[in-house]
Amino acid sequence: MKKFFKMGCLGFIVLVAIIIIIGIFASNGDDKSNNANNSTNSAGTVEKKDAAKEKAKKLKKKGEELQVGDVVFKVNKVTTTKEIKDNFLSYSPSADGSVFLVVNVTVKNVGKEMITTDSSFFQLLKGEVEYNPSTLITTKGDYFLYEGINPGLAQTGNVVFEIPEDMKDFVLNVQTGFWGTEQGQIELK
């Protein structure tokens, strides 16, 4: 009788365990199929809408302030020139048929710690094409060259890009820090 009771209890425990395991697999399968359907629907509509809203929210116009993390950027003025004079030095574009696009930007630190900024934190976009700042300008003058900005303070300077002479309507991509984890964009029309 003891053997029968032990085998009956053991059989009952095994049976309960099998039912629990089947229940778990059945519910996971339903969750996965529901999640897959929700993901498809969400990815197709909600995520795209959110991405479009985020991009539209971060895309500002010249003269408007754009906050990216603890930094506020504002494009004050955009000009083109064939020559930049700084103190006793003169710079000309290195390629034929190109000009300098000079973007005057104010960068304000609204955080709690000093930030550093440099012209490499800016990038010019024309569709899928990216332009990096010119490395010809090496004197401090009115140009962003690795500067520290304390909390509550702002710095205004120029970022210079060498571009084809006939191109217009760029977007300035701005970022915080060397890794560019936070970014935003300003139209330069």
UniProtKB/TrEMBL annotation:
Keywords: Signal. Residues 61-181 form the DUF4352 domain. It holds the Pfam family DUF4352. InterPro entries: DUF4352 (IPR029051), Immunoprotect_excell_Ig-like (IPR029050). It comes from the Bacteria. This is DUF4352 domain-containing protein.
